[in-house]
Write a structure and sequence with these properties.
Number of domains: 2
Helix content: over 70%
Distance between the termini: 53 Å
Number of helices: 9
Strand order of the largest sheet: 1-2
Number of strands: 2
Radius of gyration: 20 Å
Strand content: under 5%
CATH architecture of the largest domain: Up-down Bundle
CATH class of the largest domain: Mainly Alpha
Amino acid sequence: MSASTTARDVTFLRLNSLPMLLEREIESMILDGRLSVGGRVNENQLAATFGVSRGPVREALRSLEALGLVELLPNRGVFIRRLEIEQVVEVYGVRAALFGYAGRLLAEQADPDVIARLRAMLDEMSAAAQVHDFDRYYPLNFAFHDLVVASTGNTVLAAQYRGLVKQLRLYRAGNLMTGNTLELSNEEHARMVDAIARGDGDAAYRACFDHVERGKERLLARSASAGAPPQEKSA
């Protein structure tokens, strides 16, 4: 490879990796609430914040639009996407099917190392649920779900599932969860792991599918009782 070719390759990588880096940073700002749901995205401000031109910012926003995290409104600009309850229900339905499929795949593999890791996480979540430790339970809960999906080895499944989870995190408000909800959720986790450990693909699919559906039902019930959309916690 010639020196000139190497220089061109380095320039190409630098220019093309920047939008990806910005995409990750802006996504983080959206998901942790630094950019408000429904709010307009100020491209100039983001460019100034990151010390870049508007071009890479626009590319990053186009990628985030494809992920369903922002939306481009003609003649108005780019806005952080706000999910309506009807959209949440639709996303939950697809998520349930994907998670059920992940359970079936894991049951067919019946990998003892994966099962041991899932059981260890179950124990940690159970301890957190018993004392209603929400801050400890939620990260474990996300990690448990992600482990189920990632352990299938199906990268398309994992990418689609994670994208749906990110979209649901746009549906946020005050925390209206209860300790009892955490315990119910973890009982469902235990049924999922038991079915996977038995190598029962049908039971694993049903347990994983039903878990997401019940999470949706709990979310809708809290929303109806509070008159506002509660924060999605993937319970």
